[in-house]
Amino acid sequence: MVKEEKDIQEKELEIIEGEFINISQSTVRNVEGGHIEMQQVCALSIDGERIETTQAASLLLRGNDINMNQSMSIATIGNNTSINYSFSPVSLSRGELTVNRSAAGIIAAGNLKAENSAAMIVLANKVDGNLTALFDLKSTVALGAVIGGIWGLFSLFRRR
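Now predict its structure.
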């Protein structure tokens, strides 16, 4: 079996596909592969089995094992995810999500391990560590009920 490996530096590319991809200081629209390593890269969509980003920015980051270090991703979706010194407004993980000195908007995970991090909404079966959350599961449901009630009330008034 021949291993397909791609090393890319300082380029602007559209779509990259490969088994082992190493990108640095580049701009990419779409990356798909098995093992993806990125340093100082801006990408629209990243999809892979194992993804490691350092000082990268992306719109959608999706994979089995994700490791973000000093990076930013609008939506991070994975099985086992680690977010270190990073920002992710939406973080979803089926298995374990580790958040270390990072900020997030919405976190949904099976198990959440956090150290000195902050999030707006946290939905997790088990939470370990130091996490500052604006809303937990109970307060999120209560907030949704209040917003739904107000929305329904205004809908009734608008029809008259």
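Residues 5-155 form one domain.
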